[in-house]
Amino acid sequence: MPTSLVTGGAGFLGSHLCDRLLADGHRVICVDNLDTGTLENIEHIRSRNFVFLQHDITRHLDLGEAVDEVFHLASPASPIDYLRLPLHTLKVGAYGTHNALGLAKQHRARFLLASTSEVYGDPKVHPQPEDYWGHVNPIGPRGVYDEAKRYAEALTMAYHRQQGVDTHIVRIFNTYGPRMRPRDGRAIPTFLRQAAEGAPLTVFGDGSQTRSFCFVTDLIEGLVRLIRSDEHDPVNIGNPEEYTILQLAEAVLAATGSPSAIVYEALPQDDPVTRQPDIARARGILGWEPTVALDDGLQMTIRGTVGVGAAPA
Ligand code: NAD
Ligand code: UDP
After folding, report:
1. Residue 61 Cα, ligand 2 centroid: separation in angstroms?
2. Over the stretch 113-172, which tens digit does the pLDDT of each residue have?
3. Which residue, by CA, sits nearest to atom 19 of ligand 2?
4. Which residue of 21, 75, 133, 208 is most buried, as measured by CB atoms within 10 A?
5. How far apart are CA 27 and CA 45, in angstroms?
């Protein structure tokens, strides 16, 4: 039975990844310090093949057993989290990624870094292909996250080139689904919570900035295909269907039938104007493309399921 280690495994994406790996018949070691994740995300797991270690991956981790795959997802991910935890975000991108790569090297395991579309910053190329180097403000408030991920990518490639580690880098574009915290500040959980409460939906700026939203099961499929591929250069995984944030707010109102109004609030500093993945490499190399449309994904998120007729996630 293969063993997979998932750092950040009690978070939103990490917990869905643990579910998927267990369903595939893997033993799963979930490492999380519960900074932004929660035990509620994994409490439904009853498998004997699942181990939870409460541990801060910026500190050395001695594993008592061999692992075949290391998925490194640990990092604050929502803007309000990394603005609240700026030094920790930089540390987990640096020391945390060193430690996770060190485990992969020690065990000759495949390694996957969860990087982000934020490495493109406020992009001047549209849609964003992987060979675009980005347009990032290193000293702005988002710099702690963007530069931590850019450093983590550089570190991963160095371990690959110099140490021969079998590394993979996924650049994740905005992903949503059940288990996002209603107050994590990201647009979809915020709008869904506001709609459910009958409170106004808070659109920042004039709502003309764009994002492209991927449902969680599509994203997880991309991560699993990538770590088992021979591709070492970064691969974008995201849904190329692009929406303005105002369109997203309207889609949430339609999905929920909520009578909430839309109000406009100040745009945060350095908020990217556009974001849309070019997924030609994912299609070509992994045969991957998203299957869940926004309206269907919103309905599953509202119901707390990840499939038609599925039990709550
Ligand atoms: P999340 O906040 O739900 O999960 C992150 C997890 O990492 C949490 O459980 C947290 O407790 C854990 N963690 C943080 N620091 C840690 C440390 N030092 N040691 C151990 N665990 C630690 O966020 P998410 O949306 O699930 O994001 C997971 C990963 O995917 C992150 O690396 C994020 O940068 C990346 N990503 C996510 C998105 C998205 O849209 N969800 C987009 C781009 C990139
Ligand atoms: N946003 C918004 N209202 C909110 C939360 C977010 O208008 O209550 C906007 C935010 O300014 C950004 C987009 O929605 O333009 C996506 O924000 P999110 O925090 O989900 O992710 P980001 O892509 O910025 O990391």
Report:
1. 34
2. 999 999 999 999 999 999 999 999 999 999 999 999 999 999 999 999 999 999 999 999
3. 186
4. 75
5. 12
For the CA of 181, the closest atom of ligand 1 is 3
The reply to whether 209 falls in a domain is no
Q: Is residue 260 part of a domain?
A: no
Report the CATH number that the domain containing residue 59 is assigned in CATH.
Answer: 3.40.50.720
The full length of the chain comes to: 313
In a domain, 230, yes or no: yes
Distance CA 96, CA 33 (A): 12
Is 61 part of any domain?
A: yes
CA 264/CA 206 separation, integer angstroms: 7
Q: From residue 122, give the alpha-carbon distance in Å to each of 87, 111, 156, 236, 272.
A: 22, 28, 23, 16, 4
Name the DSSP letter for residue 242: E
Angle (nearest 5°) at CA 42 between 44 and 87: 165
Count how many domains the chain has.
1
Q: The domain containing residue 14 runs over which residues?
A: 3-176+214-239+276-291
Question: How far, in Å, CA of 244 to CA of 220, rounded?
Answer: 24
Q: Are strands 3-7 and 235-237 parallel, antiparallel or unpaired?
A: unpaired
Q: Whose CA is nearest to atom 13 of ligand 1?
A: 74
